[in-house]
Backbone:
């Protein structure tokens, strides 16, 4: 009996074909017709390769979503993925060159879907007993904020002891993601009092002057060492050079590594007394996603993966991302979540999006063996 890795290596060409079939079925998040077609390709692949329970969760606006289930038992392990991509139909061609497959969604994250299917197939082939339920949940709107899938993901996560996210790994290195930052978006709206800038400037209240003071103060929350960033993304305000501005606003993006930091940021943004008499500050927005924190449990999962990789003869790194994924939702519920389990590649959301083909069996084996350890 070949090992899981040997078995997957024997099927490396088939794995590539699985990925090509998924990538060829282009699936822009906002095109339901194309998305649904991709969903059907995925369901066909699951039935052909793995076999198990397939449930389609019908959607009105975005592509239909799928819950694939294997095994049974008291515990549950959840694998989450998305088949939508940031690309419109025909934006970038699918092509293979020097052992790399380029194309829409190959790295983010159809490569991850392909290796998950093969990891499950390899486990079945190896006769690993599924003493727990394994749910592979694939959604269709991650790239546009997961509005139509968040509840589904959270409900499934609550039943799970562990969440695996085969999203793109850290570019080129293949390192997995043990943390993802949380995100908040705030809009500061400042109002003042307009007057003629030449006749009676000191009788007005400049909303712009007040906004500058507010922004300087908020910039003080930026802490590189702690991983907290405050980015003033846009500002606007005023009407004419000879008028004291009665309105100004700014939109600010904040990123943070821990829930505690997020809560502190939220509190600082919520309470904004004006520095200038007569000015008023209104704050809109808030925390959008809480972070996937690098907890002890997550680092323990990474240690397991590292040991599997060492068995396969290579060193697996870990790191994090300032960008969020659906893993942020599951981690925020307190379920240990490890992300970036997808293939080695580069160029998520970029025209050079690519994956390293010869490495696919290694990545599938990584997921398969981690699952095997937790299915016991
Ligand atoms: Zn993704």
Residues:
């Amino acid at each position: 009996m070949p090992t899981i890795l040997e078995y997957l290596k024997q099927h490396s060409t088939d794995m590539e074909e699985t990925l090509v079939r998924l990538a060829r079925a282009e699936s822009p998040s906002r095109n339901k017709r194309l998305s649904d077609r991709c969903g059907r390709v995925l369901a066909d692949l699951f039935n052909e390769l793995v076999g198990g329970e397939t449930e389609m969760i019908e959607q009105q606006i975005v592509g239909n979503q799928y819950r694939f289930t294997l095994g049974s038992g008291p515990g549950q392990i959840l694998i989450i993925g998305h088949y939508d991509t940031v690309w419109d139909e025909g934006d970038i061609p699918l092509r293979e060159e020097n052992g790399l497959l380029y194309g829409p969604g190959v790295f983010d994250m159809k490569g991850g879907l392909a290796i998950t299917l093969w990891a499950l197939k390899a486990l079945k082939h190896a006769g690993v007993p599924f003493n727990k339920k394994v749910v592979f949940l694939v959604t269709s709107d991650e790239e546009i904020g997961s509005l139509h899938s968040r509840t589904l993901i959270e409900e499934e996560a609550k039943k799970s002891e562990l969440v695996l996210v085969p999203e793109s790994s850290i570019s080129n290195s293949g390192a997995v993601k043990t943390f993802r930052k949380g995100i908040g978006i705030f809009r500061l709206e400042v109002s003042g009092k307009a007057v003629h800038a030449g006749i009676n400037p000191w009788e007005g209240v400049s909303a712009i002057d007040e906004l500058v003071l507010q922004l300087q103060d908020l910039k003080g929350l930026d802490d590189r060492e702690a991983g907290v960033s405050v980015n003033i993304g846009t500002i606007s305000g005023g009407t004419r050079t000879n008028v004291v501005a009665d309105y100004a606003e700014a939109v600010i993006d904040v990123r943070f590594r821990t829930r505690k930091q997020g809560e502190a940021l939220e509190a600082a943004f919520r309470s904004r007394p004006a520095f200038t008499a007569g000015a008023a500050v209104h704050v809109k927005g808030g925390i959008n996603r809480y972070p996937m924190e690098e907890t002890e449990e997550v680092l323990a999962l990474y240690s397991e993966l590292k040991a599997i990789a060492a068995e396969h003869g290579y060193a697996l790194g870990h790191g994090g991302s300032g960008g969020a994924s659906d893993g942020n939702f599951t981690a925020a519920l307190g379920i240990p979540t490890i992300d970036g389990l997808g293939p080695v590649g580069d160029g998520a959301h970029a025209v050079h999006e690519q994956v390293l083909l010869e490495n696919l069996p290694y990545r599938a084996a990584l997921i398969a063996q981690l699952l095997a350890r937790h299915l016991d």
Q: What stands out?
A: Residues 4-180+291-375 form a domain with the Aminopeptidase fold (CATH 3.40.630.10). The pocket of zinc ion is lined by residues 82, 108-109, 142, 167, 325 (CB under 6 Å).
